[in-house]
Write a structure and sequence with these properties.
mainly beta, three-stranded mixed sheet, 38% strand, globular
Length: 153
């Protein structure tokens, strides 16, 4: 068993395998992203914050996601802060999960029933999701603040 683990480890490192969440950019302690969310329709439900890197399948498979209660809602606004391990390029997608099923709900013709938002307030093009490039931003040191305006149909 130990030989198998050692062999697999050598194969991964020999062929340049790196885990999905491990960015090659420098690791700086204390990197935070502060997301200022505007235009939240109600205090009902929860907010899902999804974080993406360039290697993720944006906007479907995030590196990380966080679920937060809307108890700190101030009017229609909420601020959520989290840390990241590495400097680099990121994108954030929000879901106002009003019914707490941790999934976007759609009406019978495919229009979202719940609110959503992307970093840089990236918008869908025609019937497709926004692209990572239009939603991405750089995190280099300290705190990076972004504002996202929630959209409801």
């Amino acid at each position: 068993m130990n030989k198998l683990v050692l062999s697999l480890t050598l194969v991964f490192f020999t062929f340049g395998f790196t885990p999905k969440n491990n960015l090659s950019k420098k690791n700086i302690e204390g990197l935070t992203i502060e997301v200022n969310v505007e235009n939240i329709r109600s205090a009902k439900g929860q907010l899902i914050v999804s974080l993406y890197t360039p290697s993720d399948e944006f906007p479907y498979e995030p590196s990380q996601h966080f679920v937060t209660e809307k108890s700190s809602l101030s009017g229609e606004n909420l601020t959520y802060t989290f840390t990241v391990e590495n400097a680099g390029t990121y994108a954030v997608v929000l879901l106002d999960d009003e019914n707490r099923n941790e999934d976007m709900d759609y009406n019978f013709i495919g229009i979202p029933k719940e609110g959503y938002g992307c970093s840089n307030n990236a918008k869908p093009k025609r019937l497709s999701s926004p692209k990572f490039d239009s939603a991405s931003f750089e995190v280099s040191e300290g705190k990076t603040s972004i504002a996202i305006f929630m959209k409801y149909m």
